[in-house]
Design brief:
Elements: H1 13-23, H2 28-41, H3 49-52, H4 60-74, H5 79-83, E1 86-88, E2 91-93, H6 104-116, E3 124-129, H7 135-143, E4 147-153, H8 156-168, E5 174-177, E6 190-195, H9 217-220, H10 229-241, E7 242-251, H11 257-266, E8 271-276, E9 282-288
Parallel strand pairs: 3-4, 3-6, 4-5, 6-7
Antiparallel strand pairs: 1-2, 7-9, 8-9
Helix pairs in contact: 6-7
C-alpha cells in the first residue's frame, strides 16, 4: 500500500485531488473519476468546480471525510458502498454491506425477461429468489405493470435494503422472507421465476477481486461440497411452485456447465436456452419443464 502523508493541511480541491492521485494505485484518470464521485455524492460539490474554482477551500469536515474515504479505497473498499449507490438497469439502487453489488451481467438477465414479455397484455406473476438489494425484481416491476413481482431472501438485513429501494423507486413489489430449504411454506404458483443465486465455491474466493471481500458471504458462496446447491433448491422450488408453461431465468456459473446440465436432466427440464453475457461467457439460461 502506498504511503500517505496526511500531515500537510489540504486547503483546496486541487490539493486534495493531488493527494488522491499520489496515494491511489490507479491512473490519474481513474483516480480523478473516483475523486469526482466522492466530491459529488459525499461533499455535494459539483466536480466542475475543479476546473472553475480550483482554489475552493474544503471545510475541515469535508477534508476529513475525503481523507477517510481515500484510506478505505486504498484498502479496496468498494466505492459503491461508500456512496451507498449503484446504478442498475437505469436506476440508482441503495447498497450497503448487507447486499451484493449489482453486476452488468445481471442487467442482461433482467433485460432478457423484460424483452420476452414486453408485449404482454395480461398479468403474470413473477418471483425473484435470493433478491438481495431487490435490483432484479424492482427493475422488472417498474418496467412492466403487467408483471406482478414478489421478491424474497433469507437475509432479513438484505430485505431491509430491498425495502429502502422499493420506497426509493416507488415499486409495487411484494417482499417476503424465504429460506429455499423450506419450499413447503410457499403455497402459490408463479408464471416466471428469476434468480441470481450464490454460485461461487469458497475455495475460489482467492480468485475474486480484492474488493469482493467486503460483500456478504451469504450472497456469494455455495457450500464447498456442492457448488450447485442453490440451483438444486431453485429447481425444487420450481417443480412445486412454477405454473404450467412457466419459465425460469437464471444467472449461472460458467465453470460448472457439465454439472449444471446433469442437474437439469435430474429435473427433466425439456427446454434449455443458454445465452452468453457481454464478456462472451455462458452465464445466462432460460428453462422450461
Amino acid at each position: 500500500m502506498p504511503s500517505m502523508d496526511v500531515k500537510k493541511i489540504i486547503m483546496n480541491i486541487i490539493q486534495m485531488r493531488s493527494l488522491y492521485r499520489n496515494n491511489l494505485s490507479l491512473s490519474n484518470n481513474e483516480s480523478d473519476y473516483i475523486y469526482k464521485i466522492l466530491l459529488k455524492d459525499l461533499c455535494h460539490i459539483d466536480p466542475i468546480k475543479i476546473a472553475l474554482e480550483p482554489n475552493l477551500i474544503l471545510s475541515s469536515k469535508l477534508e476529513n471525510t475525503l481523507l477517510l474515504k481515500m484510506k478505505m479505497i486504498m484498502d479496496d473498499y468498494p466505492i459503491d458502498y461508500i456512496i451507498n449507490k449503484k446504478n442498475f438497469y437505469g436506476n440508482d439502487f441503495f447498497v450497503d454491506e448487507n447486499v451484493l453489488i449489482p453486476r452488468p451481467e445481471t442487467e442482461e438477465l433482467v433485460d432478457w425477461l423484460i424483452q420476452d414479455h414486453y408485449n404482454i397484455d395480461s398479468q403474470k406473476s413473477v418471483i425473484d429468489l435470493c433478491t438481495g438489494s431487490g435490483c432484479i425484481g424492482i427493475s422488472i416491476d417498474i418496467n412492466n405493470s403487467y408483471l406482478d413481482v414478489t421478491v424474497c431472501d433469507i437475509s432479513t438485513q438484505a430485505l431491509k435494503v430491498c425495502e429502502i429501494n422499493k420506497k426509493k423507486l416507488r415499486s409495487n413489489i411484494k417482499i417476503i422472507e424465504l429460506d429455499l430449504n423450506l419450499i413447503s411454506r410457499v403455497n402459490k404458483k408463479y408464471d416466471l421465476i428469476i434468480s441470481n443465486p450464490p454460485y461461487i465455491p469458497p475455495s475460489e474466493s482467492s480468485k475474486l477481486d480484492a474488493n469482493v471481500k467486503y460483500e456478504p458471504d451469504i450472497a456469494l458462496f455455495t457450500p464447498e461440497d456442492n457448488p450447485l446447491h442453490f440451483y438444486d433448491k431453485i429447481l425444487e422450488f420450481a417443480s412445486v411452485n412454477l405454473s404450467k408453461n412457466g419459465i425460469i431465468y437464471l444467472e449461472i456459473n460458467p465453470n460448472y456447465m457439465k454439472e449444471f446440465n446433469e442437474l437439469l436432466t435430474n429435473y427433466s427440464i425439456n427446454h434449455v436456452n443458454f445465452k452468453n453475457d457481454f464478456r462472451g461467457k455462458k452465464r445466462l439460461v432460460k428453462l422450461k419443464f
